[in-house]
Amino acid sequence: MATLFERIIAREIPSTVVYEDDGYIAIKDIAPKAPVHLLVIPKRVSTRLDKIEDAQQLGELMQTAIRVAKSQLQDYRLVINVGQGGGQEVFHTHVHILGGWEGGNPVGFGG
Ligand code: 5GP
């Protein structure tokens, strides 16, 4: 069965797309946890980050997340939830981009 994000990539479920190339899509999160909250999603499906064994794929995912983040924000936080205990709800690997907090101060991590 297609993942939620595969259905978004296929435009079966609407979303706000902020970036797309052959391998990746970046969309606005439907329930933002920060003033700017984007999701960077590889089109090649893996269930969770630690299932990606290829260093090039991992690097490309981070490069894409950084490129998208820098196109929208000066400073930002990247988050990857890995597994249910790590807060992952959608089992199609993705990177959260969070930012835009007033005064530049994010909550948590001593921020
Ligand atoms: P996870 O908890 O798996 O790391 O993150 C999944 C994210 O997907 C959550 O932040 C959630 O708000 C977002 N999300 C869930 N359903 C949808 C949807 O239909 N559209 C969009 N744009 N985001 C979604």
UniProtKB/TrEMBL annotation:
A single GO molecular function term of this UniProt record: catalytic activity
Motif Histidine triad motif: where in chain: 92-96
Active site annotation, chain numbering: H94
Annotated source species: Deinococcus sonorensis KR-87
Domain of life of the source: Bacteria
Pfam families named among the record's database cross-references: HIT
Protein name: Histidine triad nucleotide-binding protein
Lineage of the species this protein comes from: Bacteria, Thermotogati, Deinococcota, Deinococci, Deinococcales
Domain (HIT): residue spans on this chain: 4-108
Alphabetical list of SUPFAM superfamilies matching this protein: HIT-like (SSF54197)
PROSITE patterns for the chain: HIT_1, HIT_2
